[in-house]
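Figure S7 source data.
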Amino acid sequence: MTVHLVGAGPGDPQLLTLRAARLLERAQVVVHDRLVSREILQLVGPLARVIDVGKTPGLSHSQSRINELLVSLAREHEVVVRLKGGDPFVFGRGGEECEALHAAGVAVQVVPGITSALAGPLLAGVPVTHRGLSHGVTIVTGTTVHGAGIDFRALANADITLVVLMGVRRRAILAAELQEAGLSPETAVAVIERASPPQQRTVRCRLGDLADAKVTSPAVIMIGAVASLELNGERDTAIAMGA
Ligand SMILES: C[S@@+](CC[C@H](N)C(=O)[O-])C[C@H]1O[C@@H](n2cnc3c(N)ncnc32)[C@H](O)[C@@H]1O
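Tokens for the predicted S-adenosylmethionine complex:
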């Protein structure tokens, strides 16, 4: 009994790892989150049971119930796949699930996925680092954890790209705090919604306008000089994706 904790990438099935695709074919049960795309779920074998824990009453938002479900499924089946959007260890609570499974004596294999934090900007033609513009990248959550806020003074650095996940709802606070901490209102921002063509959409603005930007979740917010670059237009992106 093994639970395979698998990263599904940003949405395009062509951005799955080969290991992930093979596991989806072999799985007897697939337990997935809300952000896993329909196209990727179509790769699951026809006899497998598919459980959406993002929507199942009593399971959505309850990490402990999901952990219990994974343990009980692992005791009944040989190949259980726990499928998560992006990478399981980037704001995916994959670490918590690993700990719970290990504590219950269940073996875990983790398969990395391409995180939306890096794939989103790339698919929009924006490099997260770029010689002369940005010499680093910081990935943070836009939500607060247990009431603890983000240290914006440490993040307000014009030489480092800031990538914010789960930040759409609190973008006004994010923008205000970063400006208060010293970032210019002119700082470039790119918001990449639903990364992966054809549904992907990129909205560009300045930090001073982020609060009013018309954007919806799921989206990656990137802040920094690189956000003004566009190194592959829509057409090149489509070719790169094999569309
Ligand atoms: C709970 S986190 C999961 C992150 C995921 N583990 C990863 O590595 O991409 C959910 C957040 O990731 C971002 N996200 C995930 N998939 C996305 C996508 N396809 N397009 C844009 N943002 C995405 C959004 O910021 C969303 O609110």
